[in-house]
Amino acid sequence: MATARGVSHTLELLRRGDISVVEHVRSVLADIHRNDVLGAFVAVAGEEALESAAQADARIRELGPDAWRNMPLLGVTVSVKDLLQTRDLPTARGSLLPNPRPPQDAPAVARLRAAGAVVVGKTTTSEHGWSASTVSRAAPPTRNPYDPALTAGGSSGGGAAAVAAGLCDGSLGTDGSGSIRIPAAFCGVVGYKPSYGRVPYFPNGADRLAHQGPIARSVEDAALLAQAVSGPHRSDPDSGLGSLDVPRDGRALRVGWIEYDGTDEEIRRVTERARDVLAGQGHRVEDVEVRCHSIYPALVDILAASEAAGTRPQDEEHIDRGRLEIVRHGRTLSGTAVMRAEDVRQQLRGTLRSVMDHYDLLAMATVPVEPFAASEIGPPWAADPRDLLWLDWAPASYPFNMTGQPALSLPAGLTRAGLPAGLQLVGPVGADDLVLTVARRLEADLAAPPPPAVHLPAPPGGRSLLSLAERSL
Q1: How many angstroms separate the CA atoms of 77 and 392, rounded?
Q2: What is the pLDDT of residue 245?
Q3: Domain residues of the chain, as ranges?
Q4: What CATH number labels 7-292+345-468?
């Protein structure tokens, strides 16, 4: 397994002069190549990444410590989910359909580069990010670094696996129904979904569910990445929440604890320990039951209508079977049915606003189940796409996309099977600084899971990502 990496750790090494950016990037690219069996990357920016690294080293030689004054991520390596546009790498969106190379970066990617980050590659996603696993016809499934027979989660599974395995310092993902937080929980890393609109998203879907945010090795790293990409942008009319501030102090809070029916006993055991830590820090933790009528069917209808609107009938033979089932369902929906689903969304927003009047934060297990087989889209009871249950097994994730609230998953510990379990913190819309502050303090008192110990050598004769992307070291 690759050496453990992270944003803060790499910045410290670079500032001390222990490594150069070129040395760091070469090491990262070599580790990506060696660990190709994880299926974390679909394209790697070899030459372009090294050119950016050389420019960063030149800036550091010229300016010394001041090199980071206006470029706070100078020399940090990041990966970008394959749903997001990148000017120098293909954006296939996990699809077999042709996707022309975009002429420019997505706004958040451009901001990462402007902050000095080096983009090392595009990470694997399910087709258009439709499922909470990372399975598609376009690439092998992404595997969990803690057990390669199991899924890394999705649809930002490639980014979570890459960060967990030390194949980059951080990753930029998307989250339409849990796609950052679910793989972060499965892979033992931090996944942060900012409030809706805090990070500009272009082009975004009509369903207005998708957020962009970081996957990182620590809360501090996630906050640093989020600071670089947050703020309004003219391409996204919803991006109006401004820059991200991260206060350093903490206070005793009232925390509502949500326990979902059907939570695996091992997940419950691990997260209960995290609850005890919260209480030990002085927070008042109380059980709260959030009843939200017909949330999942409404989510399905909203997503399906959006997918159907953006899909041409002549493309059906190239579309993943599971996503095709969603598209076909969307074509059966009337305008009245879609508006009823939107009404449920508004009711949910009202319900959770009322809950947040009584609690500063909500806390719960990020995912109530342990990782399942790498080739599946869900646990056995939710693995048939015809049942449209592809997200029903993750009830702690999608409600907060429908409400736009900030949510963060951090590692809570390992199950007896040696698999990570995540704890999710959720705040009111716009209270991102509060979520990050509490998460940072909680992280300091939780026993972080050890890095994955599975050795994953590249298979003899296996595909080379560097060749796939037509790049070289």
Answers
A1: 34
A2: 64
A3: 7-292+345-468
A4: 3.90.1300.10
**What does the alpha-carbon distance between residue 11 and residue 111 come to, in Å, rounded to a whole number?**
18
Cβ atoms of 151 and 141 within 8 Å: the answer is yes
Task: In whole angstroms, give the CA distance from residue 23 to residue 29.
Answer: 10
- Four-residue CA torsion sign, 74, 77, 83, 89: positive
Distance CA(269)–CA(259), nearest Å, equals 12
| Rounded CA separation 213/244 (Å) | 12
Give the integer Cα–Cα distance in Å for 42 and 27.
18
**Residue 231 neighbours by CB under 8 Å, 6+ apart:** 198, 200, 239, 242, 243
* 20, 81, 193, 409: the active-site residue: 81
Residue 468 above 50 pLDDT? no
Amino acid at 341: A
Q: Which two tokens stand for residue 139?
A: 């690439």
Residues of the chain with pLDDT > 70: what percent?
A: 92
Catalytic residue flag (residue 155): yes
Q: What is the pTM of this model?
A: 0.94
Residue 122 is a catalytic residue: no
Annotated catalytic residue, options 20, 79, 155, 397: 155
Annotated catalytic residue, options 179, 218, 397, 409: 179
Cα separation of the two ends of the chain? 20
- Torsions phi, psi of 24, nearest 5? -65, -45
Helix (H) or strand (E) holding 15: helix 7-16
User: Do the Cβ atoms of 352 and 403 come closer than 8 Å?
Assistant: yes
Give percent of the chain with pLDDT exceeding 90: 84
What are residue 173's DSSP bridge partners?
Answer: 213
